[in-house]
Protein: TIGR03364 family FAD-dependent oxidoreductase
Amino acid sequence: MRLVIIGGGILGTAHALAAVGRGHTVVQVEREVEARGATVRNFGLVWVSGRSERELEITLRSRRLWEEIGGRIAGVGFRPAGSITLVRTDAELAVAAAAAAAPSAAERGFELLEPARVREINPALRGKYLAGLHCSTDAAVESRQAMPALRAYMQATGRYTFYAGTEARTISGGTVTDDRGRRFEADLVLVCPGAAHSGLTRELVGDIPVRRVRLQMMQTAPLGEPLTTAIADGDSFRYYPGFAGPELDHLNREESQAFTAAQHKMQLLCVQRLHGGLTIGDTHEYDEPFAFDVDEAPYEHLTAVTEELLGRKLPQVVRRWAGVYSQSIDPGAIVTRAQAADNVWVITGPGGRGMTLGPALGEETADLLNL
Structure:
């Protein structure tokens, strides 16, 4: 089959990879010269630990796919580093203990560790905490270099073409017309617009059950030592459905977050890039219109928490940014797939799970559409 895929982010590229892997021919168009949205404004985490029971199977499948992809395509920077969620209060410790004792703990690779054992696994964590919830199945990729690496791999098959700086304007039957008047004929068109819910997306499928979420993050200079796992703090329990239960209810009742953390709906996530710097975040903002600038208070809070856990000063912060991702608000859906015509689908809304679930979602769509 001939596919045209609109959108060069992780969802569009994962769908292209699935189609090319099944022998089809793909043209992918991206309105920017390179993907600039949530695909590159993230941690690059393949995050198994906090996924809900309903999402666990597809998450573990995606984790396996990422490892296979990383074995074939070194440029994606896959590494099975795992994660440690560091807890600092008794209420957070109760949530971690419940997760480590849950029926799915072995599948997730959960183990509750004393501080001395945490430091054996990740010697950079010399700060203050009561325990660490280790998740051996969590992993990471290099989000800023993964898409070019995946495209180069697909181009080598001779069945994939990428058009950068190309905006799809109309879809009529199986013909996609771009903003230069070029026409691309297809048996199937997949529109993966990310957080662009208006324009062509709205023309095709109207208002779909998705919302936009804004986050703030930052990047430091090289740490000067390895951070052998990703790290998170106890605030992250509040944002991942895999930790739901009476212990989390108690945490939410008995312990109010610090004002800044609560105001900006924050959690600490931190992962080391291949160049040695740390990507640190993040915040959650749901009410539009979003600000065009970034707020300094979350960065100060995240810096303080990270330094407390590391037991040292952070290197200089060299970059700060905000990003917006698309999140499905259908409680039964991991992603929103809306059919615009017999051979045209819009796919968006994985929330903060796009990098984690991208490969599995691409394969799932291919199965659903009998590719």
